[in-house]
Design brief:
The chain is of the alpha+beta class. The protein is built from 5 helices and 9 strands. Helix 1 crosses helix 2 and helix 3 packs across helix 4 (about 160-170).
Length: about 210
Amino acid sequence: MIQRTQLPNKSNESTVYSIFIENFGHVSLKHFDIKRDASILHTWVNEPYAFFWGMQGSSLEEVKKEYIELLKPDHYDIFTGYHNDQPAFFLERYTPSKDIISNYYDAKNSDCGVHIIVAPPVQNKIPGFTLHLFQTIMDFVFTNTTIDRILVEPDIRNKKMFTLCERIGFVTDKTVELPHKTAQLAFLDKNRYQQQKTHKLSIHKQ
């Protein structure tokens, strides 16, 4: 059985969320810091696997400028995620009702949108690496009790993203033409997600 234990934030005040997953390790999130994190993000977005992030060929200064702008709206947050204290993902969290995406579906105030980029693949892959990270992100987002639903809107060609989201419990919705991509909307309902987790836990206990 995989146990997930949320940890208190005593060791580092900048850590906003921390959890220990049995046989996987610690996953934690901190607020994104341009000086600390921009060079890491710049390296990742220029890797071939990050094609759908839409920043390939960007310079470090262009990445910094983009993320300085992203951090300006009150409804937009960015976090750096760590696995056993090593950078593992970046999470962009935003309010769809205050974003351009609200022009393409009936956005609710209880919706939360996310964009996620995970660290480049390594030679010695850790089983379930990306799945554990995505589940931790969903758990973190749902710690905000006002959030009932999480939205993703990946490029329709990003099949790996669809497969992963479906494993977590996302349900695909309509396809929309955004200014920069054809996007597949998908939603994760909080109650459904929590019921699914409870069901899996009960199976492990049997």
